Structure prediction request, 174 residues.
Amino acid sequence: MVPPELDEGLPLERIKDFSLEELLGMAIKAEIGAREFYESLAERIEIGELKEKVSWLAGEEKKHEELLRKIYTDFFPGKEVVFPKEHIGPELQPVARKLDKVEDIIDLIRWAMKAEEIAAKFYAELENMVEDERKKRLMRYLSDMELGHYYNLKAEYELLLDWAMYDQMMHVGP
Prediction:
């Protein structure tokens, strides 16, 4: 089942008919959108640690864009990337308004985890919808990549929670 967050204007039925080239373009466009979002968010943040985390996320999205561009070049040597006309960035739509107002690093990481989880589910759903084996492998890869982001963020989140709890305990008592 598609999470309700993904129904916000995303043409899933149309996407299943995208060519492999269009699917790669969609993925690259999503990574560019995510990077730009995190960069713009970092520009507005004055809290040093939070700014660093958001900048780190932008850097991760840039690395994934570069990897996807390499895959695109391997499949379509000498061709420019073809981007779909739709703005497709499923991981940002449901959480963008909330992330915009976050000032606590723990909340930021939690919302970023949610974004990556939604993106992983989006690509997993597409994998179930497409029939071509190359498209299935690409969607599985993209889903796994987003899950990797999620688990990296989860580890950071748990460390931050432990640190916050330790910090609170240090302020309790005489």
